[in-house]
Amino acid sequence: MTATTLIQLTPAAPALAGRATGAFIDGRMVAPASDIRLDVYDPATEEVIARLGEAGEAEVDAAVRSAHAAFEDGRWSRLRPADRERILLKFADLVEAHAEELAQIESWNQGKSINIARAIDVGATVEYMRYVAGLTTKITGHTLDVSIPAPPGARFNAYTRREPLGVVAGVAPWNFPLMIGVWKVMPSLAAGCTVVLKPSEITPLTSFRLAELALDAGVPPGVFNVVNGRGQTTGKALTTHRLVAKVSFTGSTPVGKDIARACIDNMTRVALELGGKNPAIVLGDANLEKVVPGLLAGSLLNSGQVCAAASRIYVERNLYAPLVDALSGAMTGMSMGPGLDPAAEVNPLVSAIQRDRVRGHIATAREHGADIVSGARTPDRGYFVAPTLVVGARADHPIQQAEVFGPVVSITPVDSAEEAIALANDSRYGLASSLWTENLSRAMEAIPQIRAGTVWVNSHIPLDPNMPFGGVKESGVGRDFGPQALEAFTESKSVCIAY
Q1: Pair 194, 224: CB distance under 8 Å
Q2: Is the pLDDT of residue 92 over 70?
Q3: 414 close to 420: Cβ distance less than 8 angstroms
Q4: pLDDT score for 3
Q5: Residues 6+ away with beta carbon under 8 Å from 161
Q6: Residue 468: helix, strand or coil by DSSP?
Q7: Taking the model in full, what pTM does it have?
Q8: Residues of 294-310 as b/e, b for ≥16 C-beta within 10 angstroms?
Q9: Contact predicate 441/396, CB 8 Å
Q10: At 221, is the pLDDT very low, low, confident or very high (cuts 50, 70, 90)?
């Protein structure tokens, strides 16, 4: 790889890095009062690309109060649903118009492939935005037949209506900052709520650009605010604020549990999309021509930094050796390089901390007697980890139980589908899974037995706005996507009229 293979950054990317301050409140950038500055890095070069202030309690309070005032005065919630829909559709149009700019910023800041950033982080996000915008005009209640006996002769008309909750605190992770940030923002706005978004301090840049584009689309000042900072400071101040009606969090299970406990004090509604240790079950009749590329994509997309990534493969013995050979051969031959190199197949992890954490998991697997297949050479600088196949790990090994969140996947032979399902379910997580077979009957028998929020058959990882997504067990509470996506940002009110 040479420097000439890198795409040239649009001037808008460094301009945003210089313009973002650390908070976007009431329609403008606000410089936090604290002297704390948080460095933002290019994961491919380890160079600082921006220094943003950290929003402290004062800035978080100002952002929440701005959103609360905007909700209470009805500048957004009392618009006709059709008018909110038109503004949100214009918002989607502006994101699409700035697609290359946003994709480059995401690749530059997060480290991911520019190809993924263009197709998924921006392309799929625009489709999601338009889907949710369309739901704005489709919020419904129910009419109810009631049997109230008194007073004699009285008649009643009863119905339910769904009303926006109020201020939503959206806390987005660093693996898909723009896309998952939009998962918080769009349904909040479509339901009539106002929102304060806290991106990860590691990858905050596209969130600030998103807020600017929302303002340009006609979202009133104060309706969409952004605060930057660490979880223990900015995040804590936001998720415990008494004026926040709902917290929507995507991130690790331990942090999600802490947020859920804190929300109880204010009886704040909470939705949690948390960790995953996602199994792929390959039955003996599966077609390896589908399995190999499908599992490579399902396990290595975004360098494995995907909550739904395939990280444990259980394969019936007749296909075990061929699958190990195919996967290890493909992994060792992959090219590695910066996300801004369109030819690079594997890109850096998001940070030095994450790189070292993943390397630690690999070292622990080796110490527990597993074989490690990893032949790709990593670049001399950047937060790279080579694609790694772990062979021979027992079911109780840490590598089989812990969420690695990197380009690491284990593979285990089994003697039957029943054994594979039992091993797949032997996890505190239950976010996603996949089943690979050419036998429809075996697939239909297995699907109800797999304890996960999503089961893909002969694919792994594709999402669609119309398909609910979320986990069971310690993978979370609630669902993103689907035609009922807005209901979680509303409260049901019963109305009973005597006449």
Answers
A1: yes
A2: yes
A3: yes
A4: 45
A5: 141, 492, 493, 495
A6: coil
A7: 0.96
A8: bbbebbbbbbbbbbbbb
A9: no
A10: very high
User: Could you tell me if residue 101 is left (phi over 0), alpha (psi between -120 and 50 degrees) or otherwise beta?
Assistant: alpha
Q: What does the block give as tokens for 136?
A: 């704005």
The CA distance from 178 to 126, in Å, is 11
Q: Nearest-CA neighbor of 181 among 91, 265, 241, 100?
A: 91
β-strand 371-373 against 432-436: which pairing, if any?
unpaired
Of 357, 231, 310, 307, nearest to 475 by C-alpha is 307
Mean pLDDT of 449-467: 97
Token couple for 233: 């400071």
Instruction: Name every residue whose Cβ is closer than 8 Å to that of residue 182 and which is 6 or more positions away in sequence.
Output: 125, 128, 129, 210
Contact (CB, 8 A) for 383 and 352: yes
Distance (Å, rounded) from C-alpha 216 to C-alpha 73?
21
**DSSP codes, 182-220:** HHHHHHHHHHT-EEEEE--TTS-HHHHHHHHHHHHHTPP
How far, CA to CA in Å, does 260 sit from each of 81, 111, 254, 364? Answer: 31, 30, 10, 31
Q: What is the set of active-site residues?
A: 273, 307
The mean pLDDT value for 391-402 works out to: 96
For 28, phi and psi rounded to 5 degrees?
-150, 155
Average pLDDT of the residues of the chain: 97
Q: How far is CA 88 from the centre of its chain?
A: 21
With bands split at pLDDT 50, 70 and 90, how would you rate the model's confidence at 2? very low
Strand 429-430 relative to strand 472-473, pairing: antiparallel
- C-alpha 62/C-alpha 196 separation (Å) is 10
How far is it, in rounded angstroms, from Cα 217 to Cα 126?
A: 14
pLDDT tens for residues 287-345?
999 999 999 999 999 999 999 999 999 999 999 999 999 999 999 999 999 999 999 99
Write the CB contacts of 14 (distance below 8 Å, at least 6 apart in sequence).
Answer: 49
CB 410 within 8 A of CB 393: yes
Which pLDDT does position 374 carry in this prediction?
81
Q: What is the rounded CA–CA span in Å between residue 385 and residue 133?
A: 39
Distance CA 378, CA 384 (A): 6
| DSSP 3-state of 280 | strand
Reading the block at residue 313, the tokens are 């493969």
Contacts of 203 (CB under 8 A, 6+ apart): 40, 106, 109, 110, 174, 177, 350
Distances (CA, A) of 60 to 11, 242, 260, 326: 30, 12, 19, 51
Handedness of CA 212, 214, 216, 220 (dihedral sign): negative
What is the per-residue pLDDT for 24?
Answer: 98
Q: What is the 3-state secondary structure (H, E, C) of 377-389?
A: CCCCCCCCCCCEE
